Amino acid sequence: MISAKTLKLSLKSLREFARKRLPDQELIALDERDECPLDIVRHMCSPDKLGIQLLFIPEEYGGFGGGAFDVYAVCEDLF
Questions:
Q1: Residue 3 has what pLDDT?
Q2: Alpha-carbon separation of residue 62 from 20, 26, 54, 67 (angstroms)
Q3: Which of the 8 DSSP states describes residue 7?
Q4: Which residues of 62-79 are buried (b: 16+ CB within 10 A; e: fewer)?
Q5: Residue 50, SS3?
Q6: pLDDT 10s digits, 29-76
Q7: What integer pLDDT is reported at residue 79 of this predicted model?
Q8: Do the beta carbons of residue 14 and residue 52 sit within 8 Å?
Q9: What is the rounded distance in angstroms from the CA atom of residue 8 to the CA atom of residue 14?
């Protein structure tokens, strides 16, 4: 499990990204078309940008070593 501070900062970054790049109307349109744009995914996964997947990768492999609660918290914020 990652530290509470790291999780809080990660969720804050995720919310800011979503607010800037995915306004409600855009989310509705994407949902209607059942799409997830590749540029959005790349930005979320880029280690020098959001790097959200790093939360779930063990520390010994360069991640943050997040656990089940961390996965839950990120997933809840994504929806």
A1: 85
A2: 28, 33, 8, 15
A3: H
A4: ebbbbeeebeebbeeeee
A5: coil
A6: 999 999 999 999 999 888 888 888 888 899 999 888 988 888 888 888
A7: 65
A8: yes
A9: 10
Domain ranges of the chain: 4-78
What's the token pair of residue 71? 């996965």
**Per-residue tokens: 76:** 């809840």
Amino acid at 26: E
The one-character DSSP state at 63 is S
Q: Quick one: angle between helices 68-78 and 4-21, nearest 10? A: 20
Q: DSSP readout, the chain?
A: ---HHHHHHHHHHHHHHHHHH--HHHHHHHHHHT---HHHHHHHH-TTTT-GGGGGS-GGGTS----HHHHHHHHHHH-
Token pair for residue 24?
Answer: 């409600």
Are the CB atoms for 5 and 12 separated by under 8 Å? no
Within 13 Å and on the Cβ side, how many CA atoms surround 68? 0
